[in-house]
Amino acid sequence: xxxxxxxxxxxxxxxxxxxxxxxxxxxxxxxxxxxxxxxxxxxxxxxxxxxxxxxxxxxxxxxxxxxxxxxxxxxxxxxxxxxxxxxxxxxxxxxxxxxxxxxxxxxxxxxxxxxxxxxxxxxxxxxxxxxxxxxxxxxxxxxxxxxxxxxxxxxxxxxxxxxxxxxxxxxxxxxxxxxxxxxxxxxxxxxxxxxxxxxxxxxxxxxxxxxxxxxxxxxxxxxxxxxxxxxxxxxxxxxxxxxxxxxxxxxxxxxxxxxxxxxxxxxxxxxxxxxxxxxxxxxxxxxxxxxxxxxxxxxxxxxxxxxxxxxxxxxxxxxxxxx
Length: 323
Description:
5-stranded antiparallel beta sheet; 36% strand; 6-stranded antiparallel beta sheet; alpha+beta
């Protein structure tokens, strides 16, 4: 039987050309790595499988945990749907420079082309620098031919909706929606377990050898959802619900000093809990507790229900996700 204690993984830090210096400070970790653009908090992506770094299961990978405990860990419906594939990938992203403009295929297209799941994802903004932007969706109608022309003549950004980003904003990005993270954003990303990305545009940037990064113009053409919406920002729903879709439910829970807040449990699923601000004590149904600090990410097995949070600080901000 699986333990009901939370499971903590060693973050997988990725240095990239657009990365900054905020993640180590945000997570309060010491590292000699520089230009850290991503911290993969919980991952079952092949080649980047999270490893438990404390407690009874220390040294086991996330995939090994799923194989060992199955539905006890992930929940019956989740295990029935995904088997030994842990379905979510959770990251913290620090963009010191603009990321490339991208789109991801849906499940059907990804399965046909790559033999894997597609990628639906969401962003929740943690912090921003002045002038930071988020690019999501289309600002004007495009046909597939017009899309290719705009990529070729470097005018594609004119057709993409742009928003001034601010802490607390959420952007839901279903497969097919064009998107890009602008410079100056620190955010949490929750997505399907998939690393399939089609790069549409990279601002004509060159590497040290003068070579542009590869674009996937033709592959993206068939993956893009060309529907134009009036606004691509996601408004919070009742009781802190940020996103509810086929692949995940994500909630934001704010707890103030002297209050007790319940962590939503909306599916028979594991719960991923992230602390995005302050410090919170997580109250477990068995009477034990765990102190989460800013930058912490925990995985609670599906058998754990009824989590609550308290704080001695003015405010703590928690993000929770279920599949």
